[in-house]
Amino acid sequence: MTPEQLLGNAPPSWYLVLSAVLFAIGVVGVLVRRNLIVIFMCVELMLNAVNLSFVAFARAQGVMDGQVIVFFVMAVAAAEAAVGLAIMLQLFRVRETINADEVTTLRW
User: Fold this and answer.
1) How far is the C-alpha of 36 from the C-alpha of 39, rounded, in Å?
2) Is 35 helix (H, G, I), strand (E, B) or coil?
3) Measured in Å, how far apart are the chain's first and last C-alpha atoms?
């Protein structure tokens, strides 16, 4: 059985439920964790959850708009990851910590 045969008949509500669960895990991770890298990964999880819902809606309606929006969201997420990791690297070099509680300003 191919993945297309297995998931091809799944209703969009299943994808939306999975998207909601992934988004909730991301929100909890952002609110609970103090490590900036983990917070960053949770933001990426939330973005991918939204991408999943875009694709589910696009597939349900038979249009390509969702995939196009996902492409742009992934491009923005890649740029955000590059800039964010560079900021965290510099922050670690200066302050020797990436704990969100200890970093209150970006001035030094």
Assistant:
1) 5
2) strand
3) 58
